[in-house]
Fold these 4 entries.
Entry 1:
Amino acid sequence: MMTAILGHRASPREKCEAPLGPVRPRIGSALTVLLVVMAGCGGTSPGPGPGAGDKTGDDSQLIGRTFLSTEVKNKTLVSGTRISLSFPEKGKIAAQAGCNHLFGTVSFEGDKLAASEMGGTDMGCDEARHQQDEWVTKFLTGKPVWALSGDNLVLTGADKTEIKLTDRKVVDPDRKLVGPKWTVDSLLDGEAASSVPGGAQAYLIFADGDKVSGNTGCNTLTGTAKVGPEKITFEQIATTKKACLGDAGMLEQWVLEVLKGEVTMRIDTDRLVLGQASGKGLQLRAGY
C-alpha cells in the first residue's frame, strides 16, 4: 500500500526504485506513494508491554494486518506523520513513516522481529522525513523485540526506542465512498506514482443515486458512477469547456483517462485508489 506529498513538480512516469539498506534522500524528486500519511502520532493509547496475554514468536496473528503508531518513546516523529507497519503475507513486511513506502522480508526469531532486504520507493520528501525513513529502516532491521496483545503491537529496540501500534481497523477505519470530497494527490502508472503538478487540484464527490461530480484540475465535471464490489463504472462524464494548458491540462487529461468505463476501486483508511486495467490510476484522499 502506498502515501502522498503535494506541491512538487514531476513527470508522472518516474520509476519506483528499490535500493537496499536505508533509503537515501533525493531532494527535489516528486515521487509519492500510496499509502498512509495522516494525522501525527499523538495519542496516549496504552499499548501492551511484555507480560500476560502477549503473543511472541508466532507471526500467524500478524499476517494480513496493518498497525498504526499511537506512541513512540525515545524518538520524536516529524509533525503530521505516524508509522504504519503491515504484514501483507507470510515472510513480507511493509512500512510507511511519512515519506517512502518501505518493504522487505521478515522472519521471527523467538521474541525478535528480523526484517531484511529492505528497499523502498525514492520520493522527493524533505530532509526530516527522509531521516525518519532511515531510522525506521534501521530500527526494523535491528531485530527489535515484539509483543502482540489483541489489537496492540509493541516493538522495542536495543536502544530502548519503543513503538506502540494499534490495528488500523481500530485506529483509522476505512471511509465511506459517498460523502467525502476525494482530492487527487497522486497519479499512478503501474508501480510508479507521482505527485499532482503544483498549482493544480482535482477532486471527486460521490453522491447517492450513482452520481459523481468534481473538478478535473481545470474544468468541473458531472456524470454517473455505478458502484459494485471493488469496482466503479463511470458513464456520461461531462465537463465544462474551459481551455486547459500546462499543469492543469496535463492533470485533466490524466483524470479523464482514468474515469472511463469500469475501474478497480479500493479504499484504505482515508485513501481511495482508482485504476484502469492499463495500470493508469489515481490516488485520492478524503476530506470534508
Entry 2:
Amino acid sequence: MKVVVLQPAYFVGENPDEKIAEFLMYELENATNNSIIVLPEYSNAGGLSDVKRELKAISRAKTILEKARKVAKEKSAYVAINVLEDRDGSIKNSTYLFNKKGETAFIYDKIHLPPSEIDLGVKHGDGACFCEVDGIRFGFLTCYDVYYNEQIEYLAMQKPDIILVPGYQRGESTDIIRAQTKMIAFRCNSYVLKSSYSKVFQNTLKKN
C-alpha cells in the first residue's frame, strides 16, 4: 500500500483558507488508488489566524469531508482528513478516517488544545485516539498533542501499526519536528504519517 501525504505551503495571498482547501481537494482527486492519504490540520481553514474568519471557514467542512469520503470510495483508499467543524452543537478539531468504502471509520477529536483554540471555543476530545480498521491498528495525534507524553504512552500501550498526525506546525524547526516524529515512531514501534504545512512563504501554492 502506498502512502500519500498532502502538504501545502503556507499561502500569504488573499483568502488563504479557500486557496488551500481548493489545492487539497484537487490533490485528493489525483491521489493514488489503494493508498493511505493524509491531509494536514485545518484542511478547511488553513492559513487563518483571525477568530471571525476561522469560524466562517467552518461552513466549508462539510464540503471537503464529502470530497474526502467520495475519494476514499472511488480510489479504494483510506483517507485521514482534519477539519475545524461544528458537530453536535460544539466546535471541534476533528480528524476523520474514511475506510475504503467511503464510510466514516473513526473520528478523533483533538485532546490537547493550545490557547488559540480555547479562545476560539473549540471543545477538547474525550480521550478516544485509537481504532482498528480492516485489521490495521490506527493511532491519532493532532499537532499540539505530540508534546504530551501521556497520550503517546497510551498509544504505545495500544500497539498501533500506524499513527496519523495532521499538523499545523509553525513554531518548530524542521530538525525538531523530525526528532519528535522519530521519537513517537520509536516509542510506539509504529509507522508515523504526518502532514503539516511547509515553512516556505510564497504567492502561489506549489506541490511539495
Entry 3:
Amino acid sequence: MKLSQKVAVVTGGDKGIGRAISLRLAKEDADVVIANIHTERAKEVRDEIKKIERRCIVIKTDVTRSNEVDMMVEKTIKEFGRIDILVNNAGISSMAPMVDLKERDWDANMSVNAKGVFLCSKAVAKHMINQRNGKIINNASLAAKRGALFLGHYSASKFAVLGLTYTMAIELAPYNITVNAVCPGIVETDMIRREWKWGRGPAGNDSR
C-alpha cells in the first residue's frame, strides 16, 4: 500500500528496465501509464498489471515530439486526474567509434535520451507544481559518470540527463517536487544483448 492512490507515468515501459519499473510500481499499488512509441509489448505489460488489480493504460507517445508528450499528459490527467510520479526511462543506444559515428546517430541519441527527458519533465512538472507535490526519476546510466568505449554519443546524452536532473531538482524543490536520477550499470536487457553483438556490426534499440 506504499503508493496507494498514486499515479505513475513510465516512458519506455514496455521492456527491460522500464517493464520492471512499471510492474514494481503496480505491485506497490500505483496506477500506471505506459507512454511508449511501440504499443504491442506495452499492452502485454498493461495486461500483467491488470492481473494484479491495478489500473493501467498505454498511450502511444514519441518522447521527442512535444505535441505527443503534451497529449499523453492531457490523456493521463483526464483518465486519472493527477500525476504523482514520472519515470523518464525511454532511451536508445547504438555503438560506433567516434571517428565513424554518423551524425544521425548522434542526433537520435540526444533527441530521445536527453530531449525526451526535458519534454516529458516540462509537461508533467506543470501539473505537479499545481499539486505542490511530485516525484521525477530520470534513468541515466553509469555512462553518465565516465566515458564508455564506442558510446560517446550515448554517454554525452546521459551526461545531459544528469545536468538537467540537478537543475530541475533545484528549480522544483520549492513546490515539494523531488527530482533524482539513477545510473544503472550493465543490466541484461534487449538493448544490452544487442550491444554484446558489437563484433558483428553496429547495434541499436528504440524503446521510446
Entry 4:
Amino acid sequence: SLGDLSTMIAKNDGNISNLKIINRSTDFFDMLIDVEVRDVKHLTDIIAALRASPTVNSVERAKG
C-alpha cells in the first residue's frame, strides 16, 4: 500500500518530494515517486528496502 511505501522510505531517511500514479487497477498501482536522497548509497539502501517488501513488484531508478 502507499502507506507501506512511504513508511519504508521514511524509515530509511528518504523524503518523498513528488508522487504520481501512472496506472491503477484493482490490485496493482504503477507509481512514479521522486525521493530526495543524500548520495548513491542512500538511494541504494532505499531501493533495497523497497525491493524486500512483499507489496512491491519492482523498483527502478529513473535518470534525468
